[in-house]
Amino acid sequence: MSTPPVALERVVPMGTAEFAGSLNLAVLTHTFLALVQAVGLAQLRPIFEQPSRNGYLPFAPMSPHPSVPEPPGQPPAPPRSPLNGHSRRAFLASASAGLGLLALGTVPVTADAAEPRFIEDAFAGLAAFVLPGNDAYSKQQKKTFPGPGGVAAGGGVVTRESLDIYVPIQVGEKILPAPGALGYAIILKTITLSVDPLAVFGPFANPFANLTWTKKRTVLERLEDLPILNGSTIGFSANALTTIAGLGVYSERSSFDPRTRQLTGRPVAWDYSNYGGRSDGWPEFIGYLDGVTEVPNP
Amino acid sequence: MRDVIIIGCGGGGPVMAKELAAQGLDVLVLEGGARFADPENEWSRLDNDANNPTSGYFRVGPSDRSKPPYIRSLPRPSYVWQVAGVGGTTLHYYANNPRSQVGTFLGYDGPDKDLYDTAHLFPFSLEELRPYYEWVEETLPVRPAPIGTKENVFFRGAEGIGLKVNHSKEPRRFGYRAQQNAILQPGGTAGKVKDPQYPEAQGCTMCGHCSQGCSMPRRAPRNLKAKRSTDNSYVPMMLTADAWSPGGRPAELIADAYVQKVITEKRNGVPTAVGVRFQIQPEGEHYEERAKIIVMAGGAVETPRLWGNSDLPNPNGWVGRGLTDHHLDWVVGMFDEYTGTSRGQNSAARTDFPGYGAIENVGFPPGLNAFAQTYSDNGFSGSKRNGSPATLAGADSMGRLVGDDLRSMMSNVDGILNCLVIPDDDVEWQNRAVRQVPDLVDTNGPIARIDMMHRKRSARTYNNREFLAAKAVQLLRAAGAKRVHRMDWPPLILHSHSSMRMGLDPSNSICDEWSKARAVDNLYIADNSMLANGAGGSNPTLTTQAIVTRTAERIMTQHFGGEPWVKGNAPVSSTDSRISDAMDAIAA
What is the ipTM of this complex? Predict the structure, then answer.
């Protein structure tokens, strides 16, 4: 049991606030150094340059994808993010081939309306890659399955949530939403453009989600091989990205209310894995090997 | 001034606390994570809610799950699968309690002695540790696991590749057996119905949720929950020591108390531990407390980190070095029959290959199965190989399963059978868990950095892994698998040990044969980090708990004038009704 430490000798923290603030800035700096090295400073500059609402780094939760319902129990959509107005600038800055085609006017621009979904589309595209279904992302990648897939299971949501909570940012006494999902959405986009520059043109705000399934695999293979990540503090995560999505697409997330931590129904993943579901017990007890219930000491 | 302060309430700390509290010492236990006092309601037993590595209730982080987890620097593809909280990593372990392989001990002279990591043996004989093994096995208690469908399928495969049953606690030849595990055997309606409740049901209900925390059977007293994670066994004992031990004194436990520094002072020119500084998490007050003896038990990652952050001496450079993780791998077979993989105990069967390691079966709900099947150092199955030296080892395919392949394999979670490959791996200088250099810090100080040179393991480690992977493939085929797939995992640091290893040689060990830190007086280590080696591929918890029991006796006799109590005596079982009654009184 947890006992309040009132009986213990209290010591005065030595510069705790300054200590914590400066140290977390170090985490921030280190992490973004890794991201900048990975994707190139030009990719991040448009984001950093924009003043934020609160005077700190301009990251905030993204609004949910209007065409992909959040699982029941999701909190209301937050206000439009400062990033939303700049994701287009960010990808235009990097998509030179795309710009060329735009200048020629030969390719219709369809991404504008989808820009607020830059992050969500990246990870929904990943969920569809891990487990195709009958959703729009699976259709776009030209690999589908006649039934619910990873998107419906909440695989993209799990991946985004996992990445966002992992990298904390604290500036002074302010704790800001973490940019882990944003960082990887940018990385996915950047590698995507090296694989297929035409992917900027498609129904989804993040070019990764516009790729075919095979090209998505190529992007993820290149991500895994990205030399700058291997050796950085977040070197583990390039390999783990698909794995977190794997957990998500077979998890309970589609029918989980994070506020009550209760199920709101039977998760779709339990159906397509033929899972009997959570139970207090099962009639699985057969007996003991050779009837041995106790092994003597040597 | 306390008698003893124990840093960490995981697999080892509560053992130390229970033994010393039973002797009447004033013991304080500080745990950096949560205390789960009401597991029936706190644990949803859902894959993502429980086991998500960043936000699940079984993560390494403060109890407030809106806060980020504790950050570690993992510069290479890897994942450290630990749990912070009262119970530590035993909260999600399968409670497998094999003894360390016989060849890992000093003095072993069997014909296969050269197969082991002979440069890093335990600094005592198996005969020396045996009484402490027996003591822990009776306290938890440890017994043969009950058999379900997936164990029957596994044993069929083991027979099919020519292995014979071997019920021994100390196997000296290849063979198979039920796990010696610390899960109360099913009684009454347990294992026979879907809705068992205490007292009609006692022991394991075969619910399949060992990895999400054991709160079954419902309504059972805390110390009669089936799985003997320390929160269900040693923690209740340490908190109620006065109820079951004459002269005992309850230990005090503070959760969410992160120790940031071990305080030392020079005595006769020798650094001597005198206290600790800790902070209530995540941003609470700082406190300082002093004791005659300090015990570090934060685990194989946090103990070397704290050592570094406390500026304790590192005269031979081995602090954090020599980390072993069993170089785990995963092989899965697909069957046309019901295997019951999502039901029953998560792992109740094993094969032993002394000198090489072991293979055990593992069952999961679908989310963790998919997690295991999408984690690979070998690229995507059917695509490029990604440079890994691992071979197919006879499997049909290798690498991450995604798309149609994943859907096919996972189309019936109770139609697959998993084999966890657990090689005996070498202690190697290159593999480490240390304080981050240059300093990258969180509010608890410089964070830990883990380096596991996965593709540069010793030849013996690599060969052991290939040998066992091939055996696992053969076993699954012999059991009737229609398709066998090898994952070739990157480091999944689930069994982590020997980063603060004990040894006879002061030039390559941190602790002496009593788990006492060589460089600091009055400081002991009581977690997996002090293990001398990888235990021959045996799951480490039992060996750690046995050594900690031996160390507790040493502390009592050397520092507090006590007498030994283990040899020749029988312990009180953690299921004793006096503990149940006392826990009820505390809860009230």
Answer: 0.96
